[in-house]
Amino acid sequence: MKRLAIVLSVIAVTLPAMATEKASLDKGKELFTSSQLATNGKSCNMCHPNGKGLFKAAGYDDETLGNIINQCIKNPLASTALDSNSVEMKSLLQYIKSLDSSTKR
Ligand code: HEC
What we know:
The structure is a single chain. By secondary structure, this protein is mainly α. The chain has helices at residues 2-19, 25-33, 44-47, 62-74, 87-97. The chain has one domain (23-103): Cytochrome c-like domain (Cytochrome Bc1 Complex, Chain D, domain 2), CATH 1.10.760.10. It is elongated.
């Protein structure tokens, strides 16, 4: 009986965690290139094609970079700032941090 309770609680803890999407580079790239973060149909990629010009920003710390990303979400994309712990923000950070000088213009 005790074992069953343990098994059930493990399932109860694991299922929601599996349903929650994890931050990833792919997700970051998808958010960067699509207009899903915007309310005006724009995307990050329209102004920063393939991350060009952003390779310097890859070296910023998460807080600084997150604030800049949110400025670009609030102004050019006319949308609301992302929470720093959100899957979206973590994914965008991963994507921008993956850029290097080969994307230099
Ligand atoms: C309408 C054009 C536009 C859009 C759309 C846009 N940005 Fe920007 N972004 C700018 C401009 C202009 C700057 C400041 C000049 C620069 O550094 O290129 C900037 C700066 C940045 C920087 C800092 C670059 C640096 O070296 O300091 C980052 C990072 C950035 N944007 C990310 C994003 C992300 C992520 C999105 C989508 C959520 C986005 N931008 C959407 C125009 C845009």
